[in-house]
Amino acid sequence: MIQEPPFRTLLVDGNSLLFSCMADDKINSDGLHYGGIFQFLLQLRMMITKGEFQYIYVFFDNEYSGYLRWQIYNPYKANRDKDYGSYGVSDYMKEVNAKVRGMLSYFNKKNGVAEKNNSKKKSDWDKFIDANFDRERDTLCRYFNEMYIRWNIDETTEGDDQIAYYCLHKKPNEKIVIISADMDLAQLLSDDICIYNQKQGLKKFITTKNFKENFGYDYRNILVKKVFTGDVSDNIGNIKGLSEDGFFKLMPEALNRAITAEEVIDRCKKLIQERIDEKKKPLKVHENIVGGVSNKEYNGDFYEINTKIVDLKHPLLSKEAKETMDEMMYAPQDPEGRSFKNLYQYIIDDDIRELAGDTRFASFFAPFKTFAQREIKRYEESQK
Fold it and tell me: Judging by DSSP bridges, how do beta strands 193-197 and 7-13 pair with one another?
């Protein structure tokens, strides 16, 4: 049997990269912001000049991405003003529900009833993102079609899960680079998979060998740590009274070797018994760990729920997302209708000045064109 030569694939966490790129303040003559588009393309260009990638995939979140986690755990991303409950509801009913909420709010205020409101007043940055992010994302996707860069946005599936699904179904001879600032994806690290963390202040490749050097603990414990300590940014609950520092103080072994949730619980059972034997009251945090008591309300077993919503070795994908992933992975792309001439016209129409002009366009997109030529050749070979 002839062994296929190794090849490299680039997977991009589209939301993570585009959010970081939006800080670029470039605007066109119509007053439209395009700094995110320019910086995103620049970051991709810098990456593909570092390595000869055979495939490039970009995965974005959508408005209801995360819905599958919300079905398991309703507080999921509630701190981000998400309204997963309106998924599948008609625009008319959304409008009706909004009016009902407004009426209830009015009568509550009138009658002096305090309302529970988790939403925060939006900052200028949040308003800026709301006004520009989706437009710049959609513009990039239009460009990707001409550049032979595969992309996907699923209604309910998060980009992380699509990246995880790809990694779990990759070819044996495939080497993968993931671009993301989200270190949840480090659960996927292996000898064949690394992450380029584009977060400001880090900007480096993270591997199984240097993860501890950069984050202080064994990468194999990303999942178990997050199950116990939650995630404030995603509104995922933690064991009540347990911080990340407390977790590592309780389980110092996690710094150097893989541990399990059972080990943590067994340790607490032992510590509880020791204090009882010494006629001392057990520490509440140890009792909370044994009992799975969280700082948030869980409708079911804390450990089971947190594991389901955190574990990227078992990604949560809709049926449609799985079908799309299976269809797009490694499939040759038909060049008909695609061209860098089309892309050039888009750049001119969008008035992206840094890329407009024959010389600048040709120079900037030269690495992308080399990549596209490999895709064209692959398609031509598939037609023989």
Answer: unpaired
